[in-house]
Design brief:
alpha+beta, kinase, protein serine/threonine kinase activity, globular, Kinase-like_dom_sf, Serine/threonine protein kinase, about 230 residues, 8 helices, serine/threonine-protein kinase, two-stranded antiparallel ribbon, Phosphorylase Kinase, domain 1
């Protein structure tokens, strides 16, 4: 059987990516004009082909291609779940999934797009699905969740086979329940989101206290100029 997305293979295989040290984003050395880069991570970059716009091609570097096999295993387990992209297949260095429209929750905060409770409930249901399948629901954060007309779709399944809990979603959910009503519908400046991200990554997990952390974040008060 010939899959439509295989027609794009020559363009996809021509993409040149290199892994970067210290968990930095991959470097894109080359990609043809028929492709559009729609996402970039530390292991791979995601492209959309102008002739096959319903597909997303996740392309790995030569040194991170082993993670494609891990993601394929996860997508096979999640087949049919409405909370994740549809998996179509994979070849050497790339994996093919459905292209999902919609802003990430990070974009929603930047642009002041309301994030409704249903989105949070969908993520909770997605996590339950992962646990039921024997997978680990970790690395779920603002840039890995898409808001599709008030429903959630989770992207990047690459860490669901890894052990341990990073508590990223637990803290996001707690922040949503306790503080989101204060900023709902208001664009949050990028510097506030980026500062919060950096502080979270620099935290000492052995002494971390969520309420103390949020007091520090709220002290940034990005809307103070508008309240005067």
């Amino acid at each position: 059987m010939i899959y439509p997305w295989l027609e794009a293979e020559s363009d996809v295989q021509s993409v040149v990516l290199t892994e970067q040290p210290n968990n930095n984003l991959v470097k894109i050395e080359y990609y043809p004009p028929s492709l559009e880069c729609v996402g970039i991570g530390t292991d791979a970059a995601v492209f959309r082909h102008m002739d096959y716009p319903t597909y997303a091609f996740k392309i790995y570097t030569p040194t991170t291609d082993y993670k494609r096999l891990m993601e394929r295993r996860v997508y096979v387990e999640l087949d049919g779940s409405p909370y994740f992209p549809t998996y179509y297949g994979d070849e050497e260095r790339y994996l093919v999934i459905s292209y999902e429209e919609g802003p990430t929750l990070f974009d929603c905060l930047l642009r002041g797009i309301p994030i409704e409770q249903q989105v949070v409930s969908d993520v909770e249901s997605a996590r339950e699905t992962l646990l039921h399948k024997g997978l680990n629901p970790r690395d779920i954060h603002l840039k890995n969740i898409i808001n599709q007309n008030g429903r959630a779709k989770l992207l990047d399944v690459s860490e669901y086979l890894q052990p341990g809990n990073d508590y990223r979603w637990e803290y996001l959910k707690k922040g949503y329940e306790s503080y989101y009503s204060l900023i709902k519908g208001k664009p949050v400046p990028f510097w506030v989101l980026d500062t919060t991200r950096k502080w979270f990554h620099q935290r000492d997990s052995s002494t971390f206290q969520f309420e103390d952390f949020m007091k520090k974040v709220m002290a940034l008060n990005p809307f103070r100029r508008h309240e005067r």
